[in-house]
């Protein structure tokens, strides 16, 4: 069971209550969504986190008598702005006085304006998406996407520029919407792990782990210590491979070919170890509720350990090529800044948050794998620029290697999974899996109905918080520096669009 | 600067010389159907456990559709008769949708369609991602120094105007259908389409929902199918070389 407290509130007083609860230090906005319960009346569900105690509160606000509007939370708590827009798309609820009210994922040019997938009987109608318009002398717009120039996911960026300087960036996503949340509430729970893991396939381990944690709360089981250790190794491999790849990609966007050429094979080396551990390079379908799919025998453990020390030594040679190279540093320093205050207001997570002075790392607050027992003080920088985000990654590469080494050294014995296939989830409960994935805090939030079936499955990808960070970072920068800003965040489009 | 050059020289050539090496013995790989007799409809455990309904068992014949298979290996673990087994080959790409369907019963031979071969020496590819970023990462991996797809004359380009092939990853939900078709229309003929990953082939786990994320096969004529979730970089290279008529 999780330690989240349930409270009720009226929709009218919701925003004030949320703001009041968040005033204490260490508390942050987690997620916000709705569900349809009893008849067609939707209830707004707000998840607030207390990162100091590893718990939080779920505030439920029921809308009565066909009411479809409520006073916006965003007006009081800016971090809620995307979640409220997503709720508008999927449930037809309208947040009154939301400062940027428009669609987030389901736009009228593609989807019927009366389609509300998670609230089928809604009578609402969506309005057409309006790009934010910047006016003034010499202001011009540059539209980019949905298909970008590189091998990368689709999304539309609308730059408003004064000459070469970006004055505003409007990010319009939703191109990869695949209807995941609806499907997850239709499947028997034993089958949900596959789709839940695929929300953003580059974060397969993070998603699978968040799903498993949430599901295990509902089933009332604890995975064995050996499974927890193996899951953590998989999670850190995922972080390592992506951070190493990102430093290579940053080098590529700077035009520093040595970095762009030398780092990708190191990512591949980590993926090779991941394959030894889990059976596949991307560690697919390895973590499941109850444990993991396969054990790690002594031979493979030894191989991983030996290879990892070679990789670690090699990385210590390669990282200075980037971080002690003045021409690389100069390009990153001061580029794409997000101030500490804005990062806090919009609830940036992961390396992007910690590059702007945040000390929040879900590994220190919420149970997943061997955390928070084996948590460590996370890397943290204050400048909030591309360089700070790159440095957080470099530091996390080192800390992840350390964690994996420690776990391999002292792997708990015992079973690697418990069988829970025949069990049923607790009825009318919430399972909340919070994981520090490689991009940051990832939440899987499963709500069951009176019979124990999943009635609502909400996923909050770290990118859901951080896209706004990218829009802030781009402001005031040169258009040609945008790819660098973008790569320093390296956000998931599919995790946002679901 | 001197340091970077020194490191590059010291690294030497790391490109794999052996083409399409098999996966290591303990890797997952895709399932295949062997000659080992199936216990039949009374067992049917593989069909029951498959999350994408890629397997059907009728009497004692098993049919496995790799175009739906996500490679979770649940069927391999549960099969008591060894009829479904692990395939560690990385040469998994095929040129017709029918070839992805494996069966324990001998069927009329599917004749692979030989490609029209306008791109035998070189292929320029426009990649379009539609919701499977692990596939994108494996495609990026195929361009690195280890796999080095450029040695086959294959390059990824920024504009459909420069491209000979459209390479699609992800299940192509409703919101990506028009951009994808417009990208295809912007390409000069002759042009081909390569579907990489199970979700691109059939929609995989996403198939059948309101988002119409059913893959690219129904939208555009596909020359080469690369199953897997995601496929190994060598399998991706296999699919691209297959589309070029080189394997």
User: Quick one: biggest sheet of chain A?
Assistant: 4 strands, mixed
Q: How far apart, in Å, are the first and last alpha carbons of chain A?
A: 27 Å
pLDDT < 50 runs, ≥5 residues of chain A: none
First-to-last CA distance of chain B: 41 Å
Greatest contact between two chains: A-B, 59 and 60 residues
Helix count of chain A equals 16
Overall outline of chain A: globular
CATH architecture of the largest domain in chain B: 3-Layer(aba) Sandwich
Quaternary status: heterodimer
Strand content of chain A: 15-25%
CA radius of gyration of chain B = 19 Å
Judged by helices, strands and strand pairing, the structural class of chain B is: alpha/beta
Number of strands of chain B: 10
Level of helix content of chain B? 10-25%
Under the CATH scheme, which class of the largest domain in chain B? Alpha Beta
Q: List the strand order in the largest sheet of chain A.
A: 1-4-3-2
Helix-strand pattern of chain B, N to C?
HEHEEHEEEHEEHEHEH
Query: Which geometry of chain B do the CA atoms define?
Result: globular
Brief write-up:
Chain A is an alpha+beta fold.
Describe this structure in words.
The complex is a heterodimer of chains A (498) and B (247). With 498 residues, chain A is of the alpha+beta class. Chain A folds into 3 domains: 4-96, 2-Layer Sandwich (Beta Polymerase, domain 2); 139-172, no CATH class; 180-497, Cytochrome-c3 Hydrogenase, chain B (Orthogonal Bundle), CATH 1.10.645.10. Chain A has helices at residues 11-21, 81-91, 180-184, 192-197, 204-219, 225-254, 257-278, 298-323, 326-332, 340-345, 350-354, 362-365, 386-409, 462-474, 482-489, 493-497, and strands spanning 4-8, 27-36, 42-50, 55-62, 69-71, 94-96, 139-144, 156-162, 165-172, 287-288, 291-292, 430-437, 440-448, 454-460. Chain A has a 4-stranded mixed β-sheet with strand order 1-4-3-2. In chain A, helix 7 (257-278) runs antiparallel to helix 8. Chain A is globular, with a radius of gyration of 22 Å. Chain A starts with a strand and ends with a helix. The relative contact order of chain A is 0.14. With 247 residues, chain B is of the alpha/beta class. Chain B folds into 2 domains: 30-103, Alpha-Beta Plaits (2-Layer Sandwich); 123-244, 3-Layer(aba) Sandwich (Rossmann fold). Helix content of chain B is 24%, strand content 17%. Chain B has helices at 2-11, 45-49, 74-78, 133-142, 174-185, 198-202, 233-244; strands at 30-33, 55-58, 61-65, 84-87, 101-103, 123-129, 154-156, 165-169, 192-196, 224-226. A 5-stranded parallel β-sheet of chain B has the order 7-6-8-9-10, with helices on both faces. In chain B, helix 4 crosses helix 7 (233-244). The longest helix of chain B has 12 residues, at 174-185. Chain B is globular. The model of chain B has no long low-confidence stretch (mean pLDDT 91).
